[in-house]
Amino acid sequence: MKKYSAFALVKEAFNNHLGWGRAWRHAQPKKRYKVIIVGAGGHGLATAYYLGKNFGIRDVAVIEKGWLGGGNTGRNTTIIRSNYLQEESAAIYEKSRSLYETLSQELNYNIMFSPRGVMMLCQTEHELRAMKRTYYANRLFGVQTEMVSPMRMKEMIPIINTDGPRYPILGGLWQPRGGTARHDAVAWGYARAISSWGADIIENCEVTGIVREASKVASIQTTKGSIDCEKLCFVVAGSSSLLAELAGFRLPLESVALQALVSEPIKPVMDCVVMANTVHGYMSQSDKGEMVIGGGADGCNNYSQRGSFQHIEETVRALIETFPIISRLRQLRQWGGIVDMTGDRSPIISKTPVENIFLNCGWGTGGFKAIPGSGWATAELVAHGNPGKLAAPFSLARFVEGRMIDESIAAAVAH
Ligand SMILES: Cc1cc2nc3c(=O)[nH]c(=O)nc-3n(C[C@H](O)[C@H](O)[C@H](O)COP(=O)(O)OP(=O)(O)OC[C@H]3O[C@@H](n4cnc5c(N)ncnc54)[C@H](O)[C@@H]3O)c2cc1C
Predict the structure, then answer these.
(1) Rounded to the nearest whole angstrom, what is the distance from the C-alpha of residue 11 to the centroid of ligand 1?
(2) Residue 39 CA: which ligand 1 atom is closest?
């Protein structure tokens, strides 16, 4: 792998930039791998990366039915934060956020991590109480957040309307080291690193069948033929139930479309991320100047990567109350992704009823921020066959035992 550096850039400038290689190889499947990961989104690629880095397991294939990062990883609104209510969540999301801080240097790939701060608005008395509770919980778990007054908020975000009309702003929960990163770059950076170690990333290759021998999986069937494996890990977000069905078990998940939109670019007006959970919408400004807007999930289960029109209208209407200036903006693009929602709005990182199949899913509307921490924890699970401290609370067993990790306050619309 060629190291990206100022020196390399200057050297290539004298070579008409002809010496840059591909960031990752386009591999064809081998007959057998030690570990096969299904899904080349951020979580699958990060799992492969930490398997190689932390456990020396590099005989790995990442199988992707479309193109790398073309699932939710390349469709999200890139919010990164760790201000969750429950201790188990704070642990994994804060691990992830702290890995993001140095990920560009670690991968030698600029993921454009921008810790510009995330503001979660409180627009009802109930929400204010809930956010204060989260703030106290954050302090206990070592997550740096603070409560801000409406007056301070107006100073920080001049375009915000703190007076209503329906929901005046009563305060906010501020995480100064939350922010954003470039979503594709996260996938590309991990892909480049694992490819340089010899891991195979096989795109345009759909997993269509699972061949079991007794309680174990022996091989997978794909559109590029059959591949044997010692261990198999599903990391396919909204398609998790479909893969589980192929393997013969069911999952407590619903798949729904979640959508986002961006406006035409304008000059810088807002230098942090703002989330308005009561009116259901959130917004940040991209480096190009577009206002990046996200809303709620569809009310019905579906697998269409679009989302319904009514949500665009609801989201924009809600945000116009909070940011009146956006009423004059033209919207450029709208898209959707299929998110995998659990009942307690917490993820699943778990063993499964099939001995050598492992599972990472259920990140729902908020898994981009979790990519490094989730990859770290899933790699540990796959390498040892048992979860470590970070992953253990997120096992499938919690749905049987009733040990829910309820994050509906932190994740209702929020990402
Ligand atoms: C509109 C939107 C906004 C969001 N905003 C945020 C946000 O601001 N912050 C945040 O933290 N999170 C956000 N999220 C959630 C976040 O995007 C996801 O939780 C995260 O990207 C999931 O990553 P993943 O790697 O698990 O899944 P994905 O990136 O979806 O990757 C799964 C891959 O599996 C592949 N696959 C599926 N079936 C098969 C098969 N049979 N064979 C082979 N490959 C298969 C798919 O093609 C896909 O590429 C948002 C999501 C959406 C849709």
Answers:
(1) 37
(2) 34
Q: Is the CB of 77 under 6 A from ligand 1?
A: yes
Please tell me what DSSP assigns to residue 114: B
Q: Is 64 in the pocket of ligand 1 (CB under 6 A)?
A: yes
Question: pLDDT averaged over consecutive 10-residue blocks of the chain (415 residues)?
Answer: 92 94 95 98 98 98 98 97 96 98 98 98 95 96 97 97 91 98 98 97 98 94 98 98 97 94 96 92 95 87 84 88 93 93 96 97 96 98 98 97 86 52
Report d(CA 398, CA 250) in Å as an integer: 15
Cβ–ligand 1 contact at 239 (below 6 Å):
yes
Q: What is the CATH number of domain 23-78+183-252+344-411?
A: 3.50.50.60
CATH number of 116-178+254-341: 3.30.9.10
**Residue whose C-alpha is closest to residue 171's, from 213, 136, 208, 127:** 127
In angstroms, what CA-CA distances link 46 with 18, 87, 224, 373? 29, 23, 24, 9
Token representation of residue 206: 């759909």
Per-residue pLDDT, 305: 83
CA-nearest residue, atom 18 of ligand 1: 367
How does DSSP assign 38-101, residue by residue?
Answer: E--SHHHHHHHHHHHHHH----EEEE-SSSTTTTGGGTS--EE----SSHHHHHHHHHHHHHHH
Region of 8 (left: φ > 0; alpha: ψ -120 to 50; beta: rest) is alpha
Task: Give me ligand 1 centre to Cα 302, in Å.
Answer: 15
User: Domain segments of the chain: what residues?
Assistant: 23-78+183-252+344-411, 116-178+254-341
Separation of CA 41 and ligand 1 centre (Å): 6
Distance 190 CA to ligand 1 centre (A): 15
What is the pTM assigned to this prediction?
0.97
CA 73 to ligand 1 center in whole angstroms: 5
Residues present in the chain in total: 415
Verify whether ligand 1 is closer than 6 Å to residue 78 (CB atom).
Answer: yes
Helix (H, G, I), strand (E, B), or coil: what is residue 248? coil
